[in-house]
Specification:
Layout lengths: L17 E4 L7 H14 L3 E4 L3 E3 L9 E7 L5 H14 L3 E6 L3 E3 L6 H9 L20 E6 L3 H4 L4 E3 L2 E4 L2 E4 L9 H6 L3 E5 L3 H4 L4 E2 L2 E6 L5 H16 L5 E4 L8 H12 L4 E4 L17 E2 L2 H10 L3 H15 L9 H14 L3 H17 L8 H12 L18 H8 L9 H11 L6 H29 L20 H14 L4 E2 L10 H8 L5 H10 L8 H14 L4 H15 L10 H13 L11 H4 L2 H17 L3 E5 L25 H15 L11 E3 L9 E6 L3 E6 L2 H6 L7 E2 L4 E5 L6 E4 L5 E2 H4 L5 E6 L1
Helix pairs in contact: 1-2, 9-17, 10-19, 11-16, 12-13, 12-16, 13-14, 13-15, 16-21, 18-20, 18-24, 21-22, 24-25
Length: 783
């Protein structure tokens, strides 16, 4: 891979490091342009912008795209984006943009393509844009947008100029129906207006996860791809955009096919990464024409490296003792995740399960060899197989390793009559593409995979992660709360695989979607080194009554990581956690009394009491939190891959789940972390060959009694990273003592102070007590 000038048709620029900016009306392109000199001085090579195409007015995130033909006017329009690109280029920076191929805003008022479908019905040229099952809706598309039942809101409806309006919402009218009486007019439309609660079971269009406000887009259709990618591709051809982050590829009918078409359309000009969440030892499909993932896999490995495995197990025992059955029936991860999957597939995704069942029924009805499978049996088979998909979804190839015979046997156990369980084999074969290749067969396979990814996201990320909370730092996208720790050997193997297979992949620690920022997680992860000390802290604040012990544990641990009492920020995050958990209240069935008790508890306790300085025990943890923060930052910035910094994370940054973590960018004061970040980024920019595709990765092992507490590696045999692991355990074990690290031959300079030098070679090991004398991390460069 070769660096080149922006816009080159034959070569492309591999970023050395990216910096994510949340572009929004409060921070438009012009504001980003003013920040360019500061960010360039930091040492990055590319700005990464959140979605830039036209979106719902006022949107703070931009994922609710309304029109792919234009750059969002609220942000400064195309002129503003091109001006930002020019300023960035003048400072040596390129642009990466977030591309959203899977969904659009389901707002007829703002989405012109959807508006035409609602006006003209299935014959509209735009009808092919969306997955709408017209037959299931009796020839109409369900729009679950009414705040109450139709009978309760019809008197507020108004008709004028070919539009039906209700409380600021606008719906186009089918030609010739405007003068009909209201009830007849409503029945004459290509859509059915309905109470929002009907979306759970009656929806007949594909949506993003369980969000009915976002409608799925069929980019697998070549015409739809061209229509929705024209502007972005123009910006790529003009050199305005040099990289693409692909949002949620698992939502697409054929992720690989989409990525192949995108690579062909960009002519190989773009560095491209996908927001693919890998589970456990799952790897990115080697056939995908991308540079790698957006980096959640790296996040899990870095966080796990700074988590104590023995202490994490002890903490889980303390959690079960403290929370009892107030959490999720005893508090064991695998059982919690499975129960959450059943909850989501039978409730939140009931409409999606029904859609799969309808397709399976049609296939069976048309195939003499498959007739007489009861709809309920097909529905049960769909549900039981979905909850047994161990990753986000199967793909074109390798699906049999996801939907295994063992999964099929488990699914069959849900049937009381063995003969009825044969429906499982039918559904599994359809999901794997082993039984027919007609339009309905292809539709089932795609829809099963799409639903599997939605189920995994909603049941694990948005439910189980809030129900099982021994160590909240492990409850991050791609994480494994049941096994939060990663050994140095596992980390080195992961990095070696990245260096070999995906050297251009992205790495992250904090994103706009992380539930807690990296530095907040680092504070929480220290508790894995002192579970009993955490139990003592909880006893100190036991006088503040909580609605239930599970909430108390979660809220106090969040507050500990956050560091500073702030009810205004903690309150919404804690409320979101209890709604997502769905144990006592939820988004759709809120319990006002319980939520009031939650707010009062946060205001009286976690939002008021400075837990990290309220006791000597907590205050003593601050140096170890600092060690975790600096260690994680340096490892991410120097390991294989292209590191991304989320806005404001060049300094210590503690943020909670969105919207807290999406506040506009602001330049802040430097701190200890900034020095580490700036040194690593400037080194990457000055010597990209030290970190590029051919630089390699070599672990270094310390020797001595405290060797497991040092993680070290080299890049290109020219840069050496060394960090302290689990510093609290290290201190309790007597410190570094005679532990040493043998550096490769040569003279090495500490880049973090520019003064200290060390000599490498087998006969001159460096004492780690000396190497880490001034800070718990070291970044060395060989002369």
């Amino acid at each position: 891979m070769t660096s080149s000038s922006p816009g080159s048709s034959s070569e492309r620029t591999l970023p050395t490091a990216t910096y994510r900016l949340q572009i929004q009306p409060e921070f438009p392109f012009a504001a980003a342009e003013r920040a360019v000199p500061h960010l360039a001085a930091l040492g990055i090579s590319h700005l990464h912008l959140s979605p830039v195409l036209e979106a719902v007015p006022g949107s703070t995130h931009g994922y609710d795209v309304t029109d792919h033909r234009s750059v969002r006017a609220e942000l400064g329009g195309e002129a503003g984006l091109r001006a930002l690109a020019a300023t960035a280029r003048a400072h040596g920076l390129g642009l990466v943009v977030d591309l959203v191929p899977n969904h659009m805003a389901a707002s007829p008022r703002h989405n012109p393509a959807l508006r035409e479908v609602l006006r003209e019905g299935p014959d509209s040229p735009y009808a092919r844009w969306f997955d709408i099952d017209w037959a299931a809706g009796g020839g109409r598309m369900l729009l679950p947008v009414l705040p109450g039942r139709l009978s309760e809101v019809r008197d507020r409806m108004r008709v004028a100029d070919g539009v039906l309006t209700l409380d600021g919402q606008e719906f186009p009218l089918r030609a010739g129906t405007e003068r009909l009486p209201l009830d007849e007019l409503l029945d004459a439309q290509w859509y059915r207006l309905a109470w929002w609660r009907l979306a759970r079971t009656e929806l007949n269009y594909r949506r993003f996860f369980t969000i009915s406000d976002l409608i799925g887009v069929r980019v697998e259709d070549p015409e739809v791809f061209e229509a929705t990618h024209g502007k972005i591709l123009e910006l790529v051809r003009d050199g305005v955009v040099e990289g693409l982050r692909i949002d949620h590829p698992d939502g697409l009918a054929d992720p690989e096919g989409y990525l192949e078409r995108l690579a062909e359309a960009t002519g190989g000009r773009c560095w491209t990464v996908v927001e693919k969440i890998l589970t456990g030892t799952e790897t990115l499909p080697a056939s995908w024409p991308v540079d790698g993932t957006t980096g959640y896999d790296a996040l899990r490995y870095v966080d796990g490296l700074f988590t104590d495995p023995v202490g994490a197990d002890e903490l889980a025992d303390v959690y079960r003792e403290f929370a009892g059955r107030a959490g999720d029936r005893g508090g064991y991860w695998e059982a919690t995740a499975r129960r959450a999957a059943y909850k989501v597939v039978t409730h939140e995704l009931a409409a999606e399960t029904a859609a799969l069942t309808r397709i399976a029924e049609r296939i069976c009805a048309a195939d003499p060899g498959l007739r007489d499978h009861a709809p309920w049996a097909l529905r049960t088979a769909v549900r039981e197989l979905l909850v047994r998909v161990p990753v986000y979804r199967p793909y074109r190839t390798g699906g049999e390793h996801v939907l295994t015979p063992e999964a099929a046997r488990g699914a069959k156990a849900a049937f009381a009559v063995p003969e009825e369980a044969a429906a499982v084999d039918v559904v599994r074969d359809l999901a794997l593409g082993l039984r027919g290749d007609g339009p309905q067969h292809r539709a089932f396979r795609a829809r099963f995979a799409q639903t599997a990814s939605a189920l995994r996201a909603k049941s694990v990320e948005d439910t189980a992660f809030y129900r099982y909370t021994p160590l909240l730092s492990a409850n991050e996208v791609g994480g494994e709360p049941g096994r939060p720790a990663v050994t140095p050997e596992e980390f080195h193997a992961f990095c070696a695989r990245l260096a070999r297979d995906w050297p251009g992949t992205g790495t992250v620690l904090t994103t706009h979607d992380t539930k807690r920022s990296a530095d907040l997680r680092a504070g929480i992860a220290v508790l894995s080194q002192c579970p009993r000390r955490w139990a003592e802290l909880l006893e100190e604040v036991a006088g503040v009554p909580a609605p239930d012990p599970h909430l108390a544990w979660t809220a106090w641990q969040t507050a500990f990581g956050f560091g500073t009492p702030d009810a205004a920020r903690l309150g919404p995050a804690v409320l979101k956690s209890v709604r997502e958990a769905g144990l006592h209240t939820s988004w759709t069935e809120p319990d006002a009394d319980y939520e009031r008790a939650v707010a009062e508890f946060v205001a009286a306790g976690p939002g008021r009491i400075p837990l990290r300085s309220a006791s000597e025990a907590a205050f003593a943890l601050e140096p170890h939190i600092r060690s975790q923060v600096l260690g994680a930052a340096l490892v991410q910035l120097t390991m294989p891959g292209v590191p991304e910094l989320y806005q404001n994370t060049e300094r210590e940054y503690r943020a909670l789940v969105d919207p807290d973590n999406r506040a506009p960018f602001a330049i802040g004061p430097d701190d200890d972390k900034t020095a580490v970040v700036r040194a690593a980024l400037r080194l990457r920019r000055a010597y990209p060959e030290f970190f590029g595709p051919l630089s390699g990765y070599a672990p270094l092992a310390a020797t001595g009694p405290a060797a497991p507490h040092c993680l070290a590696f080299t890049r290109a045999d020219r840069v050496l990273t060394a960090v302290t692991r689990l510093s609290l355990r290290l201190a309790e074990e007597g410190g570094w003592q005679d532990t040493a690290l043998r550096l490769p031959e040569g003279r090495w300079t500490d880049l973090l102070d520019g003064i200290r030098e060390f000599t490498g070679g087998p006969d001159t090991p460096v004492k780690l007590a000396e190497l880490f004398d001034t800070r718990p991390v070291a970044l060395l460069v060989r002369a």
